[in-house]
Amino acid sequence: MTTAMPPSHEALKVPEVMSALRLSRSKVYDLIRSKQLESFTSGRARRVPVDAVRQYMRNRIEETD
């Protein structure tokens, strides 16, 4: 069994974020555009810090409480 967020990675590729959050590519990019999910670019590559994914999940949990 593989984990959704590899513990050795500090920044994830968009497909890894899609897998971790079980969301579509367009939804992940919508979250990035709306600043709900922090990201950065390195050249043409878009990366999302693991902490940003965790913060997004915490925010979603708090919204439902």
What this model shows, in words?
- With 65 residues, this protein is an alpha+beta fold.
- Helices cover 49% and strands 17% of the residues.
- It is built from 3 helices and 3 strands.
- The protein has a 3-stranded antiparallel beta sheet with strand order 1-3-2.
- A hairpin with a 2-residue loop joins strand 2 and strand 3.
- It starts with 10 loop residues before the first strand and ends with a helix.
- The mean pLDDT is 90.
Write down the secondary-structure element order.
EHHEEH
Which structural class matches the secondary elements?
Answer: alpha+beta
Strand order of the largest sheet: 1-3-2
Number of DSSP-assigned strands? 3
Q: Kindly, what is the distance between the CA atoms of the first and last residues, rounded to a whole number of angstroms?
A: 31 Å
- Whole-number mean pLDDT: 90
From the spread of the alpha carbons, the general shape counts as globular
Instruction: Work out the helicity level.
Output: 40-55%
Uncertain segments of ≥5 residues (pLDDT<50)? none
Q: Major sheet, described briefly? A: 3 strands, antiparallel
Task: Note the beta-strand portion.
Answer: 15-25%
Q: What count of helical segments does DSSP give?
A: 3
Please tell me how large the radius of gyration is: 12 Å
